[in-house]
TrEMBL record:
Statement: the UniProt record of this protein carries the keyword Membrane: yes
Protein name per UniProt: HupE / UreJ protein
Species: Thiothrix litoralis
Alphabetic keyword roster: Membrane, Transmembrane, Transmembrane helix
Positions of transmembrane segments: 12-29, 36-54, 60-81, 88-110, 122-143, 150-172
Iron is among the record's keywords: no
């Protein structure tokens, strides 16, 4: 059973769009301060759980990579601009990101696979994404005053550039 949990923990690290969004959202929340981190993390955890629950509905499966990468680009630009955002906007961004990451983390459906193993894998994904977002947000909250915020602004530009590069790779013919 632990093997399925560990496999679920690795799921977000296998999809480039998930990585870029997690980095962008975590850094953006940390840049906004501890109130944004608390609210954003709560919304993110709930929305990831909703998204993971939606993976059990076969009619709702779709590849949200383009939307996730667009969201990452927006968070990168907001990071680079270093704007004071309203608390609700950070919550909306993390909520959308959480649902899409959850929906994009569906485990492989093998006939005869025990439902408990599927839910264990989904739990690993929820823990991994939430801990990653929290760690990045705490790191960013420590870096927000370093060199007058330049470090986070540069990282934000890298997030936006990374999102654009991965988005461009989606359009390359295979």
């Amino acid at each position: 059973m632990m093997n399925f949990f560990i496999q679920g923990m690795g799921t977000p690290w296998q999809i480039p769009a998930h990585i870029v969004v997690l980095v962008g959202l975590g850094l953006l929340l940390g840049q906004q301060g501890f109130a944004a981190v608390r609210a954003g993390l709560l919304v993110f955890v709930l929305s990831v759980l909703i998204g993971l629950g939606l993976t059990r509905v076969p009619a709702l499966t779709w590849d949200g990579s383009m939307v996730l990468l667009t969201l990452a680009g927006v968070t990168g630009i907001l990071l680079a601009l270093r704007l004071e955002l309203p608390l609700w906007l950070g919550a909306v961004l993390t909520g959308v990101g959480g649902v899409l990451i959850g929906m994009g983390s569906a485990p492989l459906m093998i006939p005869g696979l025990n439902a408990l193993k599927i839910y264990t894998e989904l739990a690993g994904t929820a823990v991994s994404t939430s801990v990653t977002l929290l760690a990045l947000a705490l790191l960013a909250s420590l870096l927000r005053t370093l060199l007058n915020g330049i470090v986070l602004r540069v990282l934000g530009s890298w997030v936006a550039a990374s999102a654009l590069m991965v988005l461009a790779l989606l359009f390359v013919p295979h």
